[in-house]
Amino acid sequence: MLSIKSFFDKNYQTPAFFKEKQLSRRTFLKSATGMGTIAALPSFTLGAVEQESLVQLTKTDPWLTLDATLKQLLPASPTGPSAEEINALAYLHQVMTVQPTEQDEKDFILKGVGWLNGYANSEKNKAFVALTFDEKESLLKGISQSRAGSNWLNTLLGYILQAMLAPPSYGGNTKGIGWQWLEHKSGFPLPEKGQRYFELPPRANIIKLTCLDPQEINNEL
Amino acid sequence: MSFDICIIGSGAGASPIAYRMAQAGAKVLVLEKGPWLTEKEFFKDELTISIHDAYNPKLENEQHVIEEEYQDEGGKPFWQGEPTSESGWSWWNGNVVGGSSNFMSGYFHRLKPIDFRLKSEFGAIEGANVADWPISYEELEPYYAVVEKEVGVSGRVVNHPHQEPRSTDFPYPPIAELPMSSWIDTAASNIGYHSIPVPRAILSEPAMGRRSCEYSGYCSSYGCASGAKGSGRAALLNHAVATGNCTIKPNSKVYKIATDKQGEIIGVHYYDQVGRKQRVSAKIYVVACQAVETSRLLLASKGEKFPNGLANNSGQVGKNLLFSGGGTGQGDFIFSELSKDKVSELKQVGPFINRALQDWYQINDKDFADSFTTKNSGISQNGGAKGGTIDFLFHQNPIARARGHQWQYDENDNENLVWGEQLKQALKHEFTSYKTLRFEVFNDWLPTDDCFVRLDEKVTDQWGDPVAKVRIGYHDHDLAVGEYLSKKAEKLLSALGAKNISSSVSGSPSTNLMAGGCRFGNDPKTSVLNKNCQAHEVDNLYVTDGSFMPTGGSVPYTFTIYANAFRVADKIKAHWQGLNKQA
To answer: Dihedral of CA A26/A27/A30/A35: which sign?
Structure first.
């Protein structure tokens, strides 16, 4: 199985989740066995670190580089809120840890961190975060010319837009800053924590059978 | 356990039966595939509603196979199916207690008398299976009035060339309107159109234990947190349950209606919340799972007497499926071209536009009639043709609006990813420099041999049962009518001073507007149900969702589904009372 090592690897294939977010597992398996593009283990995994504060998390990769990338994609300026002001990192962190995001998408986001730093090292001999604003900009421009880089940046930009305009309970859009900036009036009621799309009452699901108490099986209507 | 009435489904077709029969004292069981949510679980959350479609099954668990027409290299047409888990095209419209009525816009236009006799009025159409209804508008009219009162419809009667006869006035005054509504009235009047207020299934004042509309600005496709929207759940099922006679079992997926050797129904089989098989029986069974799933359930319910599916010895189950013909269009109001007052009027959100045009519900235009050169083109002897309805609306969803602005064209017309300052400017411009007024055209989706439901041979749902395979062919006539109406709507946008006016009419089905598949009619060879929506072949089986419609009319279906279900509820009540007398 090929392991893609950079944004510019000619063997890169656009991952299935990217083409269609609502893709079935069946199709995913089909495409994954076909190319094996993102089957290799990601350079980073998320686990016990979830509990740590974001501040702690951003001291090391992958969050260090993700934070720097989001800030570069939506920098502070007088014309509109920055990634920091809309809390884009916290939103992305929720996407990666709390929301039921597809594993391949999470893997892809994390793999991109490795590819970006690999590129930064080969071009500038430094990690991405250590570069100047202009150097970062030129690197992102560079990777955006590749399909993998463009897919990766587009994924992050998509989440920046969500962080800007989704209800604040998802972690971004602090105090509705994105809505205010774009003069958008939100609806009401808005969901709080515990009321978000993945926290609604569950629907019938056959998978639950595996953890069923056998005594319950005889319960008739 | 046994019930008097077992209803499969809980939406607009099911809830009037549950309500009326529980009121009459029958023991009613409602089996609903989805969970039972209440006002407390409906939020104005774009992630829930559209981005993650969280009120519907995941397509990997439950899906459809959609068959579209393609051409091979020799130009020969063929049909190819694609599972929706691969296309991402969900065909679910709200799988929760109350069904899709929780998420409707609630445009409650009645059908008009000509809709009940399309074939008699306009003749046969080559390639379409047009049929008159076995009932008239006059028979359904009192039930439209019942729905207006008991589900709650807010509106105002105006004089109009195509106003249908009404026995009563609206029981609730119109809901609050935006300044845009009066702009439309003025512009329409200036060009000889008659704009009409849209009757809405939204309470304008508190009633029947429900709050009135709170004007949050997000209505269409969102669940209602105030209870003002007349979903089957808020308006009827809550009252049905309060009688003590109605049991709702959510998360219960019916997979088969079983029959014995004589063809009598002996029970309904379903999976409960965790996938265990359960069975229940009743005196009378009612199916109302929305058109595609109703046909699927009947087709899957094979028995000795019904080798092709329940009530399907005619082969008619699943046939003549209907959507809504037409399309959408839009025009932009550029803030820099408008006065400060006009801009602030435009920016208001909360209340509704609530305007429609029905001037061409029947098209009396010689040029349009002459554009059809063959016989049997749906043109009456007087040169009239069936037209449709145009509704106006604003979209709200900000993430959908922002999406895509990270792609911008450079000076060489290449599309590039942008970010930083360029992205900020693109977003600011998108959100704060103009507002788009949209319209939707509703015209008849002609029934044809190329639009039907059957069971897929390979793809199954999470319980292992075959999913519905839907062929979605359309008739070119629908496009001609849709184009005609779109041009009329574009003219109004132009009179309003809108810019960038465009419209799009296609044969792509409106998956949220479906009907047909189990036609009602007087001939058991060409229909599944009799005029009471009772199966010709099975006495104690009724179908009460939109499946009964032989032709769909040119308005959204929910109002007519409700009205017909109230009509059929009276028949079922008489049937049940008759059974009790026998016993």
So the answer is: negative
Q: Provide ipTM, 2 decimals.
A: 0.94
Predicted pLDDT of residue A204 = 82
The answer to whether A23 faces chain B, any CB pair under 8 Å, is yes
Per residue in B403-422, pLDDT (tens digit) is 999 999 989 999 999 999 99
Question: To the nearest 10°, the Cα dihedral for B551, B554, B557, B560?
Answer: -80
Residue B399 · residue B421 · CB < 8 Å: no
Distance between CA atoms of residues A190 and A176, nearest Å: 11
Q: How far B419 CA sits from the closest chain A CA (Å)? A: 5
Q: Mean pLDDT throughout B247-269?
A: 97
DSSP states of B117-179: GHHHHH--BTT------SS-HHHHHHHHHHHIIIII-B------TTPPP-SS--SBPPPPB-H
Place of tokens 């205010």: A180
Contact at 8 Å (CB) between A44 and A114?
yes
> Which residues 103-132 of chain B have a CB within 8 Å of chain A?
none
Residues B321, B66: Cα–Cα separation, whole Å: 13
Residues of A in contact with B216 (CB under 8 A): 187-189
Interface check for B249 against chain A (CB to CB < 8 A): the answer is yes
**Which of B290, B297, B267, B299 has the alpha carbon at shortest distance from B280?**
B267
Quote the DSSP letter at residue B47: I
Sequence-distant (6+) residues with CB within 8 A of A47 are none
